[in-house]
Amino acid sequence: MTDTLVFNPTVEGFFGDPYAHYREVRDAERVQEHPLGFWFVSHYADVTQLLRAGLSVEDRHLAEGPLLDQARAIAGDRAGALSLSMLDRDPPDHTRLRSLVTKVFTQRAVAALEPMVTRLVDESLDRIADGGSVDLVEELAFPLPFAVISTMLGTPPTDHVRLRELSGTLVRSLEVVTDPEVLAAIREAEVALSGMTREIIAWKRANPADDLLTALIQAEQDGDKLSDDELVAQVLLLYIAGHETTVNLISNGTVALLRNPAQLELLRARPELAGNAVEELLRYDSPVQQTRRITTAPHVLADREIPAGAFVIACLGSANRDERYWGPTADTVDIERADAHRHVSFGAGHHHCLGAALARLEGRVAIGRLVSRFPSLALDGEVTWNGRLNLRGAASVPVRV
Fold first, then answer.
1. Residue 219 confidence (pLDDT) above 80
2. For the chain, which residues make up each domain, given as ranges?
3. Residues 278, 176: contact at Cβ < 8 Å?
4. Residues 310, 335 contacting (CB under 8 angstroms)
């Protein structure tokens, strides 16, 4: 261990703006062994190398210690809700699981969803126009991706408020957690969400249709079908990943534009920049701040040897602001940035985000149409943040139109 500054999300103001602290960590030490037992990687070059190194994501490879204890505490006496999802499996399991849903998320398949996404956005914007002063998260950023993924899956009407509360708790399992009460809450959320998902699957078995959930139930490859637990895990992952991250993209991206009025006006004047604007907003304030890898053998990164069984956090949010890669404008919003698409917000390697094209579509349509529809759009109060370390996003964005 060194005596240099360590990653510390308890510093004042971190959840509102973590990027100043990330800069301090980058300047202190490239590859950092943290007192809590994990390793922290914050430079763009090191994060991209780590993500493409083919390391594990399975907790079973963790060495004995607090991180393995956390995984066991969450899972209890059986596999946790997400531990059987493609997000938490290595090849060949990851390859098999991903292949069952990849065809639904191709560029062509996602492009065909644009009319539906546009209709849903316009319906939300009509409600916002009627309200005058609203919370953008409640009126647009949350309902849009939730409706899209629900339609794609073909699920019955669901208690979206309850699902949102539970998924917000469950995603804390993607962070390093030391509080026993939080661990217990995560475990309870996992059990409740698994139960809700099993009910949805049972309904779909009785009501098959031309949708993703029916396809997953019926999917077979080389005589191999998803087990019941695997099916629950994939559906739950699609629900959480399909809306939690896109909520952050739309809300965080809009806040960034409203706080940078020259860029907002540029987007209004040149709506054809909407696609690149989404790439820049993904870079500037990543909807997913961290991802992790687990070493199965000693791994050398930036001249540091990380031992086998280590839990390594790749800080996507830090890499996306690393001035060593992005230059002196790393902390500036620039929707004309030519290389904005080189952000790591969707990860890299074989765990690159399956829903990247869908998130880009939803972000482009929602943010583009929002700013063009309301020329007087402005913040109407303080933005509040959700207090999450990983899926960090705005909990409330009061705006007036």
1. no
2. 19-400
3. no
4. no
pLDDT at 67 over 90: no
Amino acid at 354: L
Going from the C-alpha of 212 to that of each of 116, 238, 267, the distances in angstroms are 16, 10, 34
As to burial, measured by CB atoms within 10 angstroms (0-12 exposed, 13-18 middle, 19+ buried), residue 91 is exposed
CB-count burial class (<10 Å; 0-12, 13-18, 19+) for 387: middle
Which residue type sits at 50?
L
Q: How many helices (H) and strands (E) does the chain have?
A: 17, 13
DSSP state for residue 98 in the 8-state scheme: H
Tell me how far apart the alpha carbons of residues 7 and 57 are, in angstroms, rounded to a whole number: 21
Question: Which of 189 and 255 is assigned the larger pLDDT?
Answer: 255
pLDDT-derived band at 223 (thresholds 50, 70, 90) equals: low
Across the range 24-36, mean pLDDT stands at 94
**What Cα–Cα distance (Å) separates residue 244 from each residue in 90, 202, 241, 334, 386?**
23, 24, 6, 25, 11
The mean of the pLDDT values for the chain is: 91
- The type of residue at 25 is V
Of all residues in the chain, what percent carry a pLDDT higher than 90? 64
**Using one digit for the tens of pLDDT, what is the confidence trace for 190-212?**
889 899 999 999 999 999 999 98
Which amino acid would we find at residue 126?
A: D
In 3-state terms the chain splits into helix, strand, coil percentages (rounded to 5) of: 55, 10, 35
CA distance 144 to 246: 9
pLDDT tens by residue, 125-134 = 999 999 889 9
Q: Residue 43 burial by CB count (10 A; 0-12/13-18/19+): exposed, middle or buried?
A: buried
Give the bridge partners for 291, in sequence order: 314
Give the whole-number percent of the chain exceeding pLDDT 70. 95
Beta bridge partners of residue 225, listed in sequence order: 220
User: Which CATH number describes the domain made up of 19-400?
Assistant: 1.10.630.10
CA-CA distances (angstroms) from residue 393 to 130, 254, 317, 397?
26, 11, 12, 10
Q: Which of 376, 377, 372 is nearest to 398 (CA)?
A: 377
**What's the token pair of residue 67?**
């991180």
State how far the Cα of 374 lies from the Cα of 380, in Å rounded to an integer: 14
- Decide if pLDDT at 2 tops 50: no
Note the pTM of the prediction, 2 decimals.
Answer: 0.93
